[in-house]
Amino acid sequence: MPSELLTHEVLITWGTALAAFLAVALHGIWRVTRNVITIAHEGGHALVAVLTGRRLSGIKLHSDTSGLTVSRGKPRGPGMVFTALAGYIAPSLLGFGAAVLITNEQIQLMLWISIGFLAAMLIMIRNVFGVLSIIVTGGVFLVVSFYASAEVRDAAAYVFAWFLLLGGVRPVWELQVKRWRRQAPRSDADQLAWLTGVPALGWVSLFGVVSAAALVGGGALLLGRW
Question: What is the pLDDT of residue 3?
């Protein structure tokens, strides 16, 4: 690969990483961009609920970046445990999957998978803000997929992967801060504690380990590509 092209690609990789970092680290921006993480979070709950045989009733996304996924089935057992577990680790795992596809030259496939994921969620959304969030996010993916140049499409894919990897870490910390302040008595971690008997802090720690591992692994793939 010519040195000029290599330098260009390295700049894209680090530039998109910086852009994603700012979208996560800056509070004013994060209040908006966190909605994408909420979509991934609730989508994780929904996907695992369906895969474990539970009946998905609906999904709500709220303007304060909170969300709710309701499924029906046995109130306890592996299906409920995996469904509750999926939310906080979903953004990080999706980010790692995006990094794998990018490093295998499958950016268009990554975009189409994302569009399909959003379309499937849209069917189950049960509030107006949630519908608008999915439509706006899906519209961005459609525009990038159909109308953007190859360079813009590649940069957007990198930003998306970095954002999911980095954005999967911050909510875990925010969750524990709320738990310290006793502001999240019905969090996913507390539900898992009730379901399994394992302390909620253990589940928060697991969320943190998975998100950190995905960030390290996915970041290494993206940076190591060049």
Answer: 52
pTM above 0.85, yes or no: yes
Residue 72, sorted as left (phi over 0), alpha (psi -120 to 50) or beta, turns out to be beta
**For the residues 94-123, what does the mean pLDDT come to?**
96
Q: Which two tokens stand for residue 115?
A: 């569009």
Q: What are phi and psi of 76, to 5 degrees?
A: -135, 175
Q: What is the pLDDT of residue 225?
A: 58
Alpha carbons 130 and 125: distance in angstroms, whole number: 6
Contact yes or no for 54/75 (Cβ under 8 A): no
At 70, give phi and psi (nearest 5°): -115, 125
106: buried, middle or exposed (CB in 10 Å: 19+, 13-18, 0-12)? Answer: middle
- DSSP 8-class letter at 125: B
Determine which helix (DSSP H) or strand (DSSP E) holds 65, and give its type and residue range. Answer: none
What type of residue sits at position 17?
Answer: A
The answer to whether the CB of 219 falls within 8 A of the CB of 165 is: yes
Higher confidence at residue 183 or residue 10?
183
Instruction: Identify the CA nearest to 61 among candidates 49, 82, 46.
Output: 46
Q: Cα(119)–Cα(43) distance, rounded to whole angstroms? A: 11
